[in-house]
Amino acid sequence: MTMPRRYFLKSGAIALATMGLSPSFLRRTVFAMELPAAAKGKVLICLFQRGAADALNIVVPFGDRWYRQLRPSIAIPEPLRGQGTAAALDLDGFFGLHPSLAPLKPLWDRGLLAPIHAVGSPSSTRSHFDAQDYMESGTPDVKSTADGWLNRYLATSGTCEANCAPTPFRAVAMTQQTPRMLEGAAPTVAMNSLEEFSVRGGGDQVTRLEALYRTGSADVVHGAGKDMFEAVKMLKSANPLQYQPQNGATYPRTPFGNHLRQIAQLIKSNVGLEVAFADVGGWDTHVNQGAVQGQLAQRLDDFASSIAALTADLGDRMEDVVILTMSEFGRMAKQNGNGGTDHGHAGAMFAIGGAVKGRKVYGRWPGLAPEQLYEGRDLALTTDFRTVFAEVTRAHLGATRLDAMFPGFTPTDRLGLLG
């Protein structure tokens, strides 16, 4: 039997043969097999807001008098008694959250949420493609980097001790293709949904595929086949179709909400997940961005509600989980003539988790006065994104080879995000 190579992704991601798999085959070969127990360890969840999210209307600097002058029609009102959802949610008297991020405010109150402001890439590019590439490769302004910084972590470090069973679900991206961040030599899994992660097809095809897998007689199966079948067995044993969120968690019925729901399932199924990735688009708000309501507010509602559901669903497991959000760059400090914002420079991140030292906005605030803006138009950068990535992976996952993860970069600042 000859199988097209498109059935297998050889660049670090476990591939699936899209040939169909009958339920009877699953009952015979998956549920009857014993699987080694994977260790319960630390988990890092990276969430990428693709399109350049507007940091100034997400973590609102209402205490900076220039903020409202730069954004006369799209500024978020400062918190005042009685305004409720029509104003920023006060954090520390200077910064507030966009009101659509209200589902995240209890995490701040509990000390689980830490925004990082004026953070991003030192590259001056305003190209979405280049900026995303630099953030995911971990090498700003270097286009020749072949792998992603998170894959380099996987290749050089790990939280699994010597007696841990190897697992194909150590790193999972809830995406159709392997994201740039996870490309590289270390094995990863990319899938759009748990339900689709399977080998499909008629019984005869699957029998022949298994035969090739056992004998290794076809190079297309020899390398990826073993990992593929182990991954299918582990996932089916987790019974994804029967999963019920816990602790009253209600995920939005959106692609992003569904991806976070399935990440929670993988964590609680103890399949050895250490790194998870998901992304969500729609942040390129050049026109009609809105303020308290509008295009950005709708995106933030899905974003916050999904993350809040994930944290509720995981419950006590959040002690071992850190969620890190990111976007390729921020947006111009001054609104444009179309009621939106153009591509900018520095942005904002969120770190969420039991080990996070919350109830504090991290990063040095550069100010929004004309002389304080980057190139006279953007929020200036005061924290390199690699500082955040390095600190989180070192403190949370125990990364030791930061030189390999971020070649040519040595963090000079310590934010103190994690306890």
How would you characterize this protein structure?
The structure is a single chain. The protein has two domains: 76 residues, no CATH class; 323 residues, Alkaline Phosphatase, subunit A (3-Layer(aba) Sandwich), CATH 3.40.720. Strand 4 and strand 5 form a beta hairpin. By secondary structure, it is of the alpha/beta class. It starts with 12 loop residues before the first strand and ends in a 14-residue tail after the last helix. 29% of the residues lie in helices and 12% in strands. The strands form two sheets. It has a nine-stranded mixed sheet, with helices on both faces. It has a three-stranded antiparallel sheet with strand order 3-5-4.
Question: Percentage of helical residues?
Answer: 25-40%
Give the strand order, joined by hyphens, for the main sheet: 1-8-7-9-2-10-11-6-12
Question: How far is the first residue's CA from the last residue's CA?
Answer: 55 Å
Number of E-state strands = 12
Provide a count of the helices: 13
Beta-strand portion reads 5-15%
Total of domains: 2
CATH level 3 topology of the largest domain: Alkaline Phosphatase, subunit A
Q: What's the level 1 CATH class of the largest domain?
A: Alpha Beta
Q: What's the CATH architecture name of the largest domain?
A: 3-Layer(aba) Sandwich
